[in-house]
Amino acid sequence: MSKWCFNYDSGEYENIEKDGFSIDRGEYVYNWDDSEYRREEEEERRQQDDEDDW
Fold first, then answer.
1. Could you give the angle at the alpha carbon of 44 between the alpha carbons of 51 and 2, nearest 5°?
2. What's the CA gap between 3 and 24, in Å, rounded?
3. Residue 51 confidence class, pLDDT cut points 50, 70, 90
4. Which residues pair with 19 in a beta bridge?
5. DSSP at 53
6. Going by C-beta distance under 8 Å and a sequence separation of 6 or more, which residues neighbour residue 19?
7. Which residues contact 28 (CB under 8 A, 6 or more apart)?
8. DSSP per-residue codes, 3-52
9. What is the pTM of this model?
10. Could you tell me which residues are beta bridge partners of residue 6?
């Protein structure tokens, strides 16, 4: 599922999948803000660590 991310090359927000594919452009983009995906991964790691602590 794509997320609303900023594409630095176009200067616009676009629906971009985790692998860098822009739904809006129909092509891969390489200079984009993937912080939403990284934040989501970090949260999942924290939850897993918390479960492992039990």
1. 155
2. 11
3. confident
4. none
5. H
6. 28
7. 19, 20, 21, 22
8. EEEEETTTTEEEEE-TTSEETTTTEE-SSB--HHHHHHHHHHHHHHHHHH
9. 0.81
10. 13
Asked if residue 13 lies in contact with residue 28, where contact means CB atoms within 8 angstroms, the answer is no
* 47 φ, ψ (degrees, to nearest 5): -65, -40
The pLDDT of residue 31 is 98
Helix (H, G, I), strand (E, B) or coil at 54: coil
Q: Which two tokens stand for residue 31?
A: 């200079």
pLDDT tens digits, residue range 2-37?
999 999 999 999 999 999 999 999 999 999 999 999
